[in-house]
């Protein structure tokens, strides 16, 4: 926000020249932070390769960066201008997310252990699609934050297609069929190569680099052999870093939202160290399911909140991020 600290509902066009310029400068680095958050997997897996294994400190760093980000969603609900949007559509923003929480706990409580493992597998694969959808949104914000043209349908399709690369990488990490590993790896690398070639012909300059970064997001899963937990923690960390960046920028004008998000995330960092551990899953599977249900609710709610084309949310988000 500008030095004059306008309310979240105040359009930047009425702030005055100096305030508008100051606001734009504060948003100007958004494009760089988006790229920095997106390359977390490359950095984490490179460190592990140099170290010869995934060190404990990197486990903890990626786990604590990624897992608590789910609770940052609360900031969007507590924002004074965004909350009326949710209140006007309770089914989409309240009822359905709450239902997913209950269903998650119930599914894991009722399922035999083998079925529970299948549910976890399905969740990881579905999670990949969620990460990809956020990458689509991040590229859209990247383009708008630089004052460039909106994301094209071809760019959107290229990023969405990377879900297939991510799924192949997760299947490699799960090591369910070791004899298939070479096929999964080279299949993933081939898809990445095609995607990068198409990205090179789709965009130019910094936009080409940003698009290539999104297209290559899952490349570390195929450039190296990564176990499931390091893979899950690493990509959750990148996703979480992106999310903190966007939620922080979106609600920075709301004192109430900021005051709620910070303690929620700090307290939430304790959750993955207790409830979501494999030991707790074996003892109390419904607690594990509750955690996955909360994550699923977060996935669904996110799909509603970050819609630049939405009639009510679009103008608010564009104003918050100083987008053209």
Describe the model.
This protein has one domain (30-320). The chain has 324 residues and is mainly α. α2 (30-38) packs antiparallel against α8 (113-145). It is 76% helix and 0% strand. The protein has 18 helices and no strands. The protein has helices at 17-28, 30-38, 40-51, 56-66, 74-78, 83-88, 90-110, 113-145, 153-174, 181-202, 205-215, 220-223, 228-251, 255-268, 271-274, 278-283, 285-305, 313-320. The two termini are 16 Å apart. It is globular, with a radius of gyration of 20 Å. Residues 1-26 have low confidence and may be disordered.
Compute the gyration radius: what is it? 20 Å
Low-confidence stretches: 1-26
Helical content class: over 70%
User: Main β-sheet, in a few words?
Assistant: none
Q: Please tally the β strands and state the result.
A: 0
Number of helical segments with 4 or more residues: 18
Mean pLDDT: 83
Share in β-strands: under 5%
Number of domains: 1
Kindly report how far apart the N and C termini lie.
16 Å
Order of helices and strands: HHHHHHHHHHHHHHHHHH
> What structural class do helix, strand and pairing data support?
mainly alpha
User: Which outline best applies?
Assistant: globular
